[in-house]
Amino acid sequence: MKLGLCEKCGRPTDACYEIRDNRVYLVKFCRDCGRTSSLVTNDARKWRWKRDIAEYREPAVQECSMDCASCDHQAHKKPTTVAIDVTNLCNQRCPICLAYVDAMGFTFHPPLEYFDKIFKHFLKTDPRPNIVFFGGEPTVHKDFLEIVALAKSYGFQVQVFTNGIKLADMEYCKKLCSLGIQVNFGFDGNDPSIYRTLRGDNSLAVKRKAFDNVVECGVNKLAVISTVAVGVNDTHMKELLEYIHEYREHVAVWGFVPLTPCWEPGKVPLEPTTTECVENIFERMIPQIEFVSTGMMKFEVLSRFFGRQTLGGSHPNCESATLLVSDGNSYAPISAYLSIPLSELLARLRKLDTVLQKKMTAGPMKGFRKWLFDASTFARTMAILSKALKFSKIFGKPAFRNATLALTDLMRGRTMDRVLSERTCFKNLLTMITIPYEDKGGLEDARLIDCPAVFAYEDVRTGRIRTTAFCSWQTIKDAACREIQQHYDGKTFEDQEEEAITARQA
What we know:
Largest sheet: 12 strands, mixed
Radius of gyration: 23 Å
CATH class of the largest domain: Alpha Beta
Number of domains: 3
CATH topology of the largest domain: TIM Barrel
Oligomer: single chain
CATH superfamily of the largest domain: Aldolase class I
Strand content: 15-25%
Number of helices: 18
Low-confidence stretches: none
């Protein structure tokens, strides 16, 4: 038996998975509210395949209490990504959103001092985590540029998830991009009707202007983030992919947030979209494309070659991702350059990584022993890649020599992007990743326990910086943010409600 959250009261309760008509549901059994269930996916076959290919086994005991208000996630999992809510103020009023003033009933806009406490708390974390800003809309916080500058001054890599509207102001856009921040830009498609449905406005024109501004300002890294709603913009994904390809020199990531019902009942006449729905959209559109769980890309020893995963958990039914390669005219899936499925390649590399981890823990790696271990790692990795990669298509001629030089460069510490650009035909890559972080009804203990991405906040009662798993923040956010704002403002609950009403009218 697992733990989930009751659909009615929100408390942790016994749960289990049920499969009906190729759909997976997480069914909860609350003592007070009875039986409730949440749709997890419309594609049970693919959901199970992800578990099989990762050789995942359900834990024999419950993984965590799911009582996120009293738990501190960092106590049992060192974070690689730290998300922070900047404010719940926003320059949009999306009907599908519950993370802004109207829905929460009070305004949340803590001072610079609050963020400074969080940054200082993570200075000693090794390796130092990325800082990611969320909202509301982070850019409407009056001190947001100062908040970003402060985080950068401490040496953090910084990202922001933004709807982009404030960046239509070129002066503001220049200031933000000059800080060396990664911009995760909300862009749902190129048809105005999409925004009327999902955002309740006609913001496409201003978003396009803002997008061009970000490109012109030469932002450090640009990611496009699209909320995907079946029946709204699923048929527009091909057009959006072509649009992104026009900006292939600038856009490195395309992220998808499957539309999950987090609005008030009856408010929005849309059906849930799941991770597998997103994958199926692209599988119908792009032959050979294959999404795999991001947990399969999580390496310890081999991370020196392939990079260290910073976002997403190791659970097979969490995030999924794939890679597209541009030939200058269009994108092709990474599978076109492989002689075996991407999932099989990753499974082989994961098995090798597990073996290498055991060897590393057997004794200290120094001198000749370390050299021998590194040489063996190099040879065994090359053996796997040589059977999986279409070398001549990727590396040109002489393929083996170029591949060896590329792997040698990685061992010497050169960045993956630079090696790919110089040693292969992979000049422009696009990482595609699903980000199912709003599916409150589908949360369960095994999925949360190993997540390396957290939301951080100050427990104003004790002054400590606490964390919760990325997806579980929504279960405690309202109460935590209300206490934080009361602490820094010295305002009562009634004062907060009045301020919220004023903000809504503004």
